[in-house]
Amino acid sequence: MTDRIRDFLATRRPDGPCMVLDLDVVRDNYLTFARTLPDTRVFYAVKANPAPEVLKLLADLGSSFDTASVAEIEMALDAGAGPDRISFGNTIKKERDIARAFEIGVDLFAVDCVEEVEKIARAAPGSKVFCRVLCDGSGAEWPLSKKFGCAPEMAIDVLEHAHRLGLVAHGVSFHVGSQQRDPEMWDRALEMAAGVFHACAERGIGLGMVNLGGGFPTKYLKDVPAVEAYGQAIFGSLRRHFGNRLPETIIEPGRGMVGNAGMIQAEVVLISKKAAEDEVRWVYLDIGKFGGLAETMDEAIRYPIRTEHDHDDKAPCVLAGPTCDSADVLYEKDPYYLPVSLSIGDKVLIEATGAYTTTYSAVAFNGFPPLKSYVI
User: Fold this and answer.
1) Residues 271-294: pLDDT tens digits?
2) What residues are labeled active site?
3) Which of these, 36, 79, 102, 228, has the minimum number of CB atoms within 10 Å of its CB?
């Protein structure tokens, strides 16, 4: 917890669960990415945290933006970014949304099939497209599914189809999985990307850009390598697979940009057992999966949790949210150890929650309001 967050919680004493984000941390994170990968453009993944204050800070620092919808495009524009600093990175887009983005001035689009290429050719003629290639995401704590991307062999055909339809076949993208703690995972993906570059060149199509995606982690319970380790590994792989003719590169950090900048303050609503002889307590908080902690699904992301009683003895407990839905259990397979002295009404601090919390928070499931957000 930063001193600024600590002071905010102590003086404002907000009611109900809330996420407090420190912009100074976001600034430091951006400058670290920019310094570590100086020849790579940063396209912040807006979906991680679209708070206007975050977007404006990053726009002022020179960041570009990876967007998934027209609404996110408009947020980036409102923050001060020009359309030349915006990528429509969702591979699943309505044709009218493509047309609207193109009307606004956006001309960089993600694709992963010929059908999407054809929509862009009709709605945004002459635009640049990059094809997302499937990546298995092994080693990531939040692996991405096969929902996005295509096989490398298909990517070649997709890019050639775009070229034939008058679009600019601009490059290749991939994603090594969110919260990727192994910097070497970019090597295999870059080898694959280089293969697509080579095959397209043989067909007379000169690609120019590799989108290295996101995946840059934030620290939860496990240590993660420093950004510098990722920069060194990525640069080494680029040299190895592309030689001296390095492509333009971009990255799309989201979690790595804002995750460690935020903290959620929550309250213990109930502590109980299911049977008198049970050793494991159930601790219910006033926030759960539907209140912003969706990434606890399958217990993938394990957030650090702090209390005022952490100096006391601890015992295992099941951690759950407040809603009338049996899926709203955060950690049960691998119980959390919390102080035995923890009581109803105590505050708990859930660390590293600046990313994918406010955006995953339900509007009003069970009547609970969306997660409050304070940016300081």
Assistant:
1) 999 999 998 999 999 999 999 999
2) 324
3) 228
272 and 209 co-located in one domain: no
Backbone angles phi, psi at 341, to 5 degrees: -85, 0
**Average pLDDT of 339-365?**
96
What pLDDT score does 227 carry?
Answer: 96
How far apart are the two ends of the chain, measured CA to CA in Å?
A: 13
The pTM for the full model equals 0.95
Nearest Cα residue to 228 out of 219, 214, 216, 211: 216
Q: How far lies 213's CA from each of 6, 180, 185, in Å?
A: 33, 11, 12
Total domain count, the chain? 2
Tell me how far apart the 2 most distant CA atoms of the chain are, in Å.
73
Mean pLDDT of the chain: 96
User: In which domain, by residue range, is 203 found?
Assistant: 89-253
**Burial of 358 (C-beta count, 10 Å sphere; 0-12/13-18/19+):** buried
